[in-house]
Amino acid sequence: MPPPPPPSPTAAAPTPPASPTKPPLCPRQIAALVLNHPSSTLTAASARSLSASILAAAPAPALPIPCPVANSVLKLLWHHAPRALLFFHALLRLPPSARELSPSTVDLALDLAARLRHPRQLTSSILALFPRHGLAFTPRTFPILFERFAVSQRRPDLAVRLFLSLHRSHGVAQDLTLFNSLLDALVKSRHAGKAASLVRALERRFPPDAVTYNILADGWCRDKDTSRALDILRQMVESGIAPTKATYNIILKGFFRSGQLQHAWDFFLQMKKRGFNDESCKPDVVSYTTVLHGLGVAGQLDKARKVFGEMSKQGCPPSTATYNALIQVICKKGNVEDAVAVFDDMVAKGYVPNVVTYTVLIRGLCHAKKIVRAIKLLERMKSEGCEPDVQTHNVLIRYSFEEGEIEKALDLFERMSKGMECLPNQDTYNIIISAMFVRKRAEDMAVAARMVVDMVDRGYLPRRFMFNRVLNGLMLTGNQELSKELLRMQEKYARLRREIRL
Q1: Three-state secondary-structure class, residue 249
Q2: Which residue of 29, 90, 144, 359 has the fewest C-beta atoms within 10 A of its own C-beta?
Q3: Three-state secondary structure call for residue 99
Q4: Are 199 and 183 in contact (CB under 8 A)?
Q5: Can you tell me the distance from the alpha carbon of 387 to that of 425, in angstroms, rounded to the nearest whole number?
Q6: Which class for 235: exposed (0-12), middle (13-18), buried (19 or more C-beta within 10 A)?
Q7: CB-based burial, 257-278: b 16+ in 10 Å, e otherwise
Q8: For residue range 378-434, what is the model confidence (pLDDT) as tens digits?
Q9: Phi-psi region at 478: left, alpha or beta (left = phi > 0; alpha = psi -120 to 50)
């Protein structure tokens, strides 16, 4: 029997079985990787180490990490700014083929850096990344800094100085849009007078437009000075600029903010009357929602419900935000079962509840001591694809403490701190620290101290009063070790002035 012919040199070699490919890492997996990294300190070594860990965990087909994924990771880590920035710098150390870098990602990093304790140093290094990587500044880049300096850092002078130096320091044109964003940051930090003075001083360079006047009116309304807001409205008309619907809604909200209910109602009626001939005066969904909420907060629920019922008849169907406002005021001033009925009616009519809807109803149920139902609503929220945010969790933690469910509250916090839920924010820590003073036991003081250490590690500084209260509690209960740790922290951060009372 002849031997079989040799295989043809052109015959294909047998293909080895394909190894299963790992699915690409999702944002939550990358966030978990960052949270579990040994160090949260931003150094070149820790950034390189995290970069190597990401490369080792990410399958080759998933690289480069797309910009939307990187942005989602930064948002998931938002309440742990040091680790979020560590991820950002690890991203920069990935090979160019393994990452995408967009201006929006750098904007997010800039926002995070501006919240921390040395904002000018951190933000300068991040701003330098735009020209270094050939990225253009976005319309959000400098407004982020204006707002962070003015609101978070309480340094409106830094915001003004940055704006005035933009052309020289960054080659950015100082146009009216950017000027208006500076004014907006000033009024949000309750510096309406400074904003008005700046407009007068720079009026020739930046002639005010409707947006400028609206920002100034909003600033005085935030200060509950509606007479000055009305003066802005008059100046606007005298300068030949027609007020917009936003202008009227700002004034309307201002009346409610300052408790001038009758003025608010009369102004709303005038809007309706003039709206027949002038579309810019006709109340829209924002106007109705403002009136409904203002009346409800003042305890006039029947009148608020009447306004709600009138909306659709006036050709202005309610929005999800309108339902949220109605549910909120009913929970505050009425019966939570009525709020549940409004929620059910909203869903039946095809509206999709958002995180605010669920949170205000969960708060109402908790306030009515129906925490079991609140937890069930939380589970329903998750099952319907609406992720609870930090405010939702803070509500449940606060009321669990009030009901004496300390372990349940601390367990929920533990899940948050590990990233199993959304990360805790400064309010979360303040809620827990305050709750630890109910029993004033030594172990409770130790928990409060660990919360202080943890929040500082995550980029927050406690209020001086809160810090000294915890320190005094530790010393009175004899916890020398944690007392020394807090004293060292006090020496490090000048804002935490020593006020020890024995």
Answers
A1: helix
A2: 29
A3: strand
A4: yes
A5: 16
A6: middle
A7: bbebbebbbebbeebeeebeee
A8: 999 999 999 999 999 999 999 999 999 999 999 999 999 888 889 999 999 999 999
A9: left
